[in-house]
Amino acid sequence: MKKLEIQGLKKKYNGKWVIKGIDLTIDEKECVALIGPNGAGKSTMINMIVQILAQDEGRITLDGQDAKSVREKIGFLPQYPEFYGWMSATECLHFMGELSDMEKKDLEARIKEVLLLVGLEANANKKISTYSGGMRQRLGIAQAILHRPELLVLDEPVSALDPIGRREMMQLLEKLKKEITILFSTHILKDAEEICDRIAIIKNGELVADKTVAQLMKEESSPIFEVEFTGDSDAWQQTLLQNKCVEKIEKIGLVYQVHTTNQKAGAEAVLSSLLNIQGEFIRVENRHQSLEEIFMEKVGK
Fold first, then answer.
1. DSSP alpha helix (H) spans, 72-222
2. Whether 240 contacts 197, CB under 8 Å
């Protein structure tokens, strides 16, 4: 079942298109990461999905209905959630639930339920001003899911957290994705790789990739050979770059990274070049590009 559908989404600021016709579909209970460099348009796109900003062109639908008419089905955690520090988590969620017109009896039970889910039950009555960054983000998740939304949207949920808070947030999202559709923006690729079903890469307001991690690794990754050797490196590189399957050679420390288009042909080219050059190779190792390297190629072109 299609949960969220975005078609031809566009947004203009000061006469300039910052979102340039994005199409994106997210299925029910799917977890999708929206990644891209700063200024790519991630937050603008998210603010349109949650109806904080109006799009200039295109459609956003949830369960086939215009997102404007079903805003109550969307839960949202902004990058820097704001809370009244003098309130406790319980008081804050009461306040949020009343704003959402939740019935009092249901609200009482739901507050206990979400505080348990996000791991704040032991700190439910402590002032929010005493909370760590990770605890505040978990409270942010609690308020976002309090009204039982069908889509949870998070804008850079771990960007301001220390490693402990980040790990807590990832564990929480791992639990939530079994129950709810999730879209979150991030620039931390390891997080996207760890918990997401799919990754959407945005650059300059355009979607440049929308695939599973496995698909990205299989379709976008090219074989890389890491070579360490002693000898005439300039002559060796010149010889190797004449081969059509060799895209580029990068030196990182003492290691030469040879990027090729084909694993078998690349291996033959590297080994052949080493045999024909005066010197001695210390190590030759084959690997594929990491998600970070694929991302850098996608947004750096």
1. 89-99, 104-117, 133-145, 163-176, 189-195, 213-215
2. no
Each residue of 42-57: pLDDT tens digit? 999 999 999 999 999 9
Both ends of the chain: CA-CA distance in Å?
A: 35
Task: Give me the sheet containing 2-13, strands edge to edge.
Answer: 16-27, 2-13, 57-62, 65-66
DSSP state of 127: B
Sheet of 223-231, strands arranged across? 246-252, 255-260, 223-231, 279-288
- The whole-number pLDDT of residue 1 equals 52
Would you state the pLDDT for residue 114? 92
Tell how far CA 115 is from the center of its chain.
25
User: Helical H runs in 153-243?
Assistant: 163-176, 189-195, 213-215, 233-241
**SS3 assignment, position 74:** strand
Report the Cα 246 to chain-centroid distance in Å.
31
Torsion of CA 186, 189, 192, 195, to 10 degrees: -130
* Inter-CA distances, 204 with 16, 161, 184, Å: 11, 26, 18
The span from the CA of 225 to the CA of 169, in Å, is 36
The model's pLDDT over 189-220, given as tens digits with 9 standing for 90+, comes to 888 888 899 999 999 999 999 998 888 877 77
Segment holding 274, helix H or strand E = helix 263-275
Residue 209 phi/psi, 5-degree rounding, is -160, 145
With contact defined as beta carbons under 8 Å apart, do 259 and 227 qualify?
no
- Asked if 222 and 247 count as a contact pair (C-beta separation under 8 A), the reply is yes
Amino acid identity for residue 180 in this structure: I
Regions of the chain with pLDDT less than 50: none
**Region at 145 (left for phi over 0; alpha for psi -120 to 50; beta for the rest):** alpha
pLDDT at position 301 is: 58
